[in-house]
Amino acid sequence: MSETLPTSAGRSGTVPLERLRLDPENPRIPETHRTTDTAELATLLEMGFEAYPVAQSIAELGFFNAEPLIVVPSQDEEGAWIVVEGNRRLTALVGLAYPKIRAEFATPDRWDRLAAKRTISPSALIPVVMHKSRATTHAEVARVHVVGKLPWRPFMQAKYIAARVAEGRTLQEVADLIGIPKSKAADLYRDQAVLAQASTIGLETSQVESAFSLLTVAMGSTKIRNHVGAPLGSQTVIGKDPIPVDKADELREVIRWVFGDEEHESLISDSRQISQLGNAVASEVGLEALRDGKTLEEAKQRIQEKGLDPLKALTLKLTAARSSLTAASSDVAEFGLDKEIRDLVDDIESLVGSIRSTLEDAGADAER
Question: InterPro entries given for it (predicted)?
Fold first, then answer.
């Protein structure tokens, strides 16, 4: 018996280009630049998100019907449609069709040359998938950008997850919606909450947003998490600040060490040094050195001079953990439906994922 596959909640159709509007809620657009003006948004997206290569493809090959835009009706403008998926493609179309708009782009001359190759009229019909509301678009949009061929950067993924949770969905529901493990969704939710808290206590976070993946790596380090009091993603309480109030100074330290600020350079040059920073932070000698303004290398040297042997300590810890897990494995089946047991296993999975990422980074570093 054949199985009927589920279909999209939207319906296929076409909409004139002149009735399509860029989405001011697009995660690519910084909060400080939100506007409903499509011309302004197009200029922003063209500068920051590489719309030109898309325009090149359209000018040379045309707009592929197999890649329709996902749209919802505008609440503010009768007959207009907001593009919730495909804003780079719409920016490319707008740049090719409207001389006045592309004149505001950073490099209008090259856009003029592209526009001369293919005439696109504002009345051109563009293939779309029409949805009644944003709520029915979430699964399609998320799968394109979180697990699809053009993924959002981690910060955009985290913002999307936080937005769905704010609507009342559970982390498990969001994870199922976008097709990623619950543990990853929980970690990203925690990381954006850490960033939001850093902003509320007065830290400059624009550089953190642009290099958000460094924060995700830092929060994947058990030692750095312990230093700031951050929970595992699976233990993050929705709607509650993840960093304890009495750890605000430690959060400031970590943000400064990882990202730098107006007065200090970052202590790391890439994510592979996060584990080294974690080792220094976890050592009284290393932490004192960092707080004295020493470099990461100087902190490591001070630790070595004290005769500490982190490798031996790590080996003992991992051996003990393996023994405990081996002993516990024989009892798991009996309590497989117990929520507390499942939560503990989620925590362990998250920890192992962090350790594995650190090992892979170290291996890549050694091969260079």
Answer: ParB/Sulfiredoxin_sf
